Amino acid sequence: MLLSVVITTLTASAQYWHQVKSEADELKGTQAQIRHIIEIPGKGIISLDDDKDIFSFTTYDGIFSYESPRKYLNVVEGIFGWYGEDGELLGKENILLNVNVENPEFAVADATRSFPGSNGAGLKKIAFWIRYYKGSVRIIIPRYGKTDFDVTLPTFLSQIKPSNEQSKPKGTPQKKSTKKPIRRK
What we know:
mainly beta
């Protein structure tokens, strides 16, 4: 539900991380949460929990191509690569993501939960890279009957946020006010 609210608040051309805060709710038993969310137009949305190494993925086109190795487990294997500022591949990890069978366009990679074949240590490396280094991360997740969900994300320190201020070019004359100053005695 949080992602659906966020989708409506993000602009279609946004390709940078947004910080979204949700307050704790005693009645529901939910804790306060801070997430970083990035929307890739035409592809989907990715979020990263601020203090836990949990990623969630939503694809706009199709569903993730998952397998069910156990009755209670539905997974898809993604490839996560991290790159330096110069675009050089520095490392990669194969990460299992848990796919929601009732909503297979949604998948979660959670380093706090362990299941057979999961790679929590690899996921922690990726989350650490996104938070504290300059460069990018490329994520490839197979989709059923479609091309892969293949996105490249900037790290927090590498992203360029759009400026809300419109700066005037140098040498632009300032307009003079036609109002006369009021003098008080």
